[in-house]
Write a structure and sequence with these properties.
- The protein is α+β, with helices and mostly antiparallel strands.
- The chain has helices spanning about 5-20, 130-135, 150-155, 160-165, 175-185, 200-220, 225-235, 270; strands at about 25-30, 50-55, 60-65, 65-70, 75-80, 95-105, 110-115, 120-125, 255-260, 265.
- The strands form three sheets. The chain has a four-stranded antiparallel beta sheet with strand order 1-6-7-5, with no helix packed on it.
- Strand 2 and strand 3 (about 60-65) form a beta hairpin.
- Helix 1 (about 5-20) packs parallel to helix 6 (about 200-220), helix 1 (about 5-20) runs antiparallel to helix 7 and helix 3 packs across helix 6.
- The longest helix is centred in the last third of the chain and has 22 residues, at about 200-220.
- It comes from Microbacterium endophyticum.
Amino acid sequence: MPEMPEVQGLVDFLNHRIVGLSITRARVVSIAALKTYDPPVEDLEEATVVSVSRHGKFIDIATTEAHLIFHLAKAGWLRWHESLPTAPIKPSGRSPLALRVGFDDASGFDLTEAGTKKSLAISVVRLPTDVPGIARLGPDPLDPAFTIDVLEAIVTARRTQIKGVLRDQSIIAGIGNAYSDEILHAARVSPYALASSLNSEEIAVLFRAITETLTDASAAGAGRPPADLKDAKRRGMQVHGRRGEVCPVCGDTVRSVFFADNSLEYCPTCQTGGKLLADRRLSRILK
C-alpha cells in the first residue's frame, strides 16, 4: 500500500511535471472508483493545473476549475506516460485501469489498481474538505505543528494498541501498515503495547522514530519517477516484509503476525523482550 513517503514522492514528481499544463482528457474507466458526481469529471477538461499537494495519503491535483483527488488504497498506483497512449480505452471488468488523464504536452497518467478487491477512490470536488476522508484526517506527522506534546496528548488518551493508533488516519495522517512496523522497530516498542502505557521517555523516542523514519523514507524517494518509488520503499525497510530475515540491528530473526488480509513484522529482541507474538488467526496473543 502506498503510504506517506511514496505519496509525497508522487506529489513532488507531479508538481514538477504538470503544474501549468492544461488537461485535455479525463476519462474514468472504473465507475466504481469515482466517488463524486458534482462537479462532473468533464469539468476538468481544459482546466489548468495550479498545484499538487498531499493530505495524508490523498493526492490533490488543484486546477482552475476543481480538485481532482485520489486515494490509491491498498493496490492502486499512478503510471506516468511521457506520451499518453492514443488507442481507444475499452472498459473491462478485468482491466486494472481506473482513470486516464492527459495534458496539452501529450503526456499523462493512468491510475491503476491490481487485484479483485477494488478500493481506489477518485473524487472531483470544489474543496479538498468535501472529501470525507480528508475532512476527518488527524495531524500530519511531518507538519512542524506535530510536536512531542501533540504526540503525548494523542498517546496518553488511548488505551488501545500503539500499532492501531499509528495506523488510524483520524488520529495521525499518512502512516500505514508498513511504516508503522518500521517506526515501532526503530522505537523498540511492541506493536501490542497499549498506547497509554508509554512513559514520557518512550514517547520521546517514538516521536523521533516517527519523524526520522518518515523523513528518511521521503528523502529516499525524492526526485524518483513513479515507476521507481515502490522499489525505493522496499529497499529501505528494516523489518516490514522481511519475515525470516535477519534483523539489521540485533541479528535476531524478523517475525510476522498474520491477520485476515495483512500482517505485521517485528523483531522479538528489539521490541518484545524476546517474546514471540502469537498468530492472531489462532486467537492467541502474548502480551
